[in-house]
Amino acid sequence: MTFMQQLRQRWDASGSLVCVGLDPEPAKFPRRFAGDADAVFGFCRDIVDATAEFACAFKPQIAHFAALGAEDALERLVAHIHSVHPGVPVILDAKRGDIGSTAQRYAAEAFDRYAADAVTANPYLGGDSLQPFLERADRGVVVLCRTSNPGGADLQDLAVQRDGDTGPARPLYQHVAETAAREWNGHGNVALVVGATWPEQLREVRAIVGDMPLLVPGVGAQGGDAEAVVRNARAADGTGLMVSSSRAILYASAGDDYAEAAARAARALRDTLDAARRD
Ligand SMILES: O=C(O)c1cc(=O)[nH]c(=O)n1[C@@H]1O[C@H](COP(=O)(O)O)[C@@H](O)[C@H]1O
Q1: Which atom of ligand 1 is nearest to the CA of 61?
Q2: Residue 95 among the catalytic residues
Q3: Which runs of E-coded beta strand occur in the chain?
Q4: In this entry, which stretches build a coiled coil (predicted)?
C-alpha cells in the first residue's frame, strides 16, 4: 500500500487529523528515565503506544535522535510503530535537499534504513534534487512550502515572477505549491508543509493544490490556532490535514503520568480538530 493510500485509510479509521511529533529531549523526560541507557527509545515507545489511537501519523524528527547518537533508537521506534500499530504512517522529518547523487542517499536513508513511509524535503535545490524521493512512488514526499517559524517569511514570502509570466509577482511559497501540484506530483505522492502559525497562507495554498495533503506543524508550543487551520485548509471531504504537535503532547506532564497526559493532549487536539471540521 502506498503512503497516500495508508494516510487516507488512517484518516477514515481514526477519525483523527492529529500527527504526533516525536522530538525526544532527555532533559524533559520524567525522572524515572534518569540513568536509563535506552531512555530515548523507552520514552518515545510509551508515547507512541499511548497516543496511537488518536494519531493519523507519527513524525519522528531525525535531529532529535541523531544529536544524541540515538539513530538505533529511531530505527527500533519506526519498526515498533510498523509492527504494533500497523496502518499508522511514519513521516521522517529530515528536511533533506541536495544534488541528485546525494539526495539519492538521503532517500535510501529515510526509506530503506529507517523504513519511513514519507520524508520531509526541502525544495530549495529544485526539481532534480527531489527526484530521488519522488520516484519512490509508494512513499510520500512532504515538501516544505511555508514553514511555521517567524523567519519563514524572509525568503518564502518574496514576491517573484517566473520568466514569461505575465501576471503579477507572487510569493515564492505559492510558486512552490503550484510547482508541487503541477510538476512534482506525477506519482501522486507529494504533500506540503505549511505552518499552523500562518492561517492566511494555509488558505492560499489549499486554493492552489486542491486536495493534496498538508502537514501542518505549529499548533501547541508554537501557538498556532488549530481551529483556524481546519477552517482555512481542510480538503473538500474534511480531511487533507496532518496537524502536527510535538512538545505539547510529549511533555504534557513531567510526572509518572506522562503517557496518560500525552494521550489526553492528543485526544483533546483530535476533538478540537474534529469539531472544527464539522462546523
Ligand atoms: O517539517 C516539519 O515538521 C516542521 C516544519 C515547520 O515549518 N515547522 C516545524 O515546527 N516543523 C517541525 O515540527 C515540530 C514542531 O514541534 P512543536 O512546536 O513542539 O510542536 C518540530 O519537530 C519542527 O522541526
Answers
A1: 22
A2: yes
A3: 18-22, 57-60, 91-96, 118-121, 140-146, 159-160, 170-171, 190-194, 214-217, 241-245
A4: none
